[in-house]
Amino acid sequence: MNALTPVQQAFRNAMAALSAAVNVITTDGPGGRCGITATAVCSVTDSPPTLLVCVNRSSAMNAVFKTNARLCVNVLAGEHEEVARHFAGMTGVDMDERFARHTWGQSAQGLPLLEDALASLQGRIVETQEVGTHSVFLVELDEIATREHCTGLVYFGRHFHQLQPVSAA
After folding, report:
1. Cβ distance 38 to 72 under 8 Å?
2. Which of 124, 119, 125 shows the shortest CA–CA distance to 152?
3. Rounded distance, CA 138 to CA 124, Å?
4. Of 99, 111, 103, which is closest to residue 142 (Cα–Cα)?
5. Is Methyltransferase one of the keywords (predicted)?
6. Per-residue confidence of the chain (169 residues) as pLDDT tens digits?
7. Helices (H), 53-165
């Protein structure tokens, strides 16, 4: 691996100061089944509901997402830190075992859904742009489910943190 330039290191340090929701992006189809932990997910518009999802081009799973052309963003709740670690490749667990260790269902479109995710957003990749080291997918959503009264999971300062909901006064 090449050493980072000072600008690249400064960028990474700045991004470590940017809190981000933790998600497991999943897919299944002709290219196979896989999932990855990602924080590079954001809303684009609600007309039609569209997300932006970034996946590293050097990841073997990048091609799987492109082949399947459908994905699900599983927004992780606070109790899902272990799920995040498995799907980030931090635990050395293979892909089949990652899915076996947690309660996964399957959507009508055949996508893996984490049954107790804070939210699941399913859709099709309608556009892909290659930007530097990543593929940027624009995903039009066709199914959205949410769960209330949960803690959230964020990544900040290169560590996972739980967020507690604020109770209404």
Report:
1. no
2. 119
3. 8
4. 111
5. no
6. 578 888 888 887 787 777 789 999 999 999 999 999 999 999 999 999 999 999 999 999 999 999 999 999 999 999 999 999 999 999 999 999 999 999 999 998 899 999 999 999 999 999 999 999 999 999 999 999 998 878 899 887 888 888 887 765 5
7. 60-68, 81-87, 95-100
DSSP per-residue letters across 6-41: HHHHHHHHHHHTS-EE-EEEEE-STT--EEEEE--E
Sorted by where each starts, the structural domains of the chain and their CATH numbers stand as 6-163 (2.30.110.10)
- Chain-centroid distance of CA 139 in Å reads 12
Which residues contact residue 69 at a Cβ distance below 8 angstroms, ignoring those fewer than 6 apart? 29, 124, 125
Alpha-carbon distance of 28 to 69, in angstroms, equals 9
Output the six-digit token pair for 73. Answer: 């963003």
Report in angstroms the alpha-carbon separations of 46 from 19, 151, 166.
Answer: 23, 24, 25
Please state, in angstroms and rounded to a whole number, the distance separating the CA atoms of residues 140 and 122.
8
How many CA atoms, within 13 angstroms, populate the side-chain half-sphere of residue 139?
30
CA distance 153 to 161: 6
CA 41/CA 22 separation, integer angstroms? 9
